[in-house]
Task: structure prediction
Amino acid sequence: QVQLVESGGGLVQAGGSLRLSCAASGRTFMRHTMGWFRQAPGKEREFVACILWSGGSRYYADSAKGRFPISRDNAKNTVYLQMNSLKPEDTAVYYCAASPLGLGGNSRAYDYWGQGTQVTVSS
Result:
């Protein structure tokens, strides 16, 4: 029973903030890299950010670096994506994912995926 459940999506005006949460089972979460991906209508799924199981190392896409810090709370089996200074082009379905490998943005390295949460940024 391995599950990832996202929450925190919604509608926000440009310039606003949202915090996405992903609650994971311990079997998936422990010693797994946790990542966030997004997919806009008509576009390919793209990497956003990921964090090592220890929480000590992070890797960001250029679009997210300095704007969307990722963090994790292992005691709560939860990973977060704090989205600040949101832009209309950030509108997408955001997915949480878990990988047994190290840091990286290749979606094929991630074995487990959440159902996704919609983020819509209005202008």
Remarks:
- Residues 67 and 84 are 6 Å apart (CA to CA).
- The helical segments are 26-29.
- The first strand starts at residue 4 and ends at 7.
- The mean pLDDT is 93.
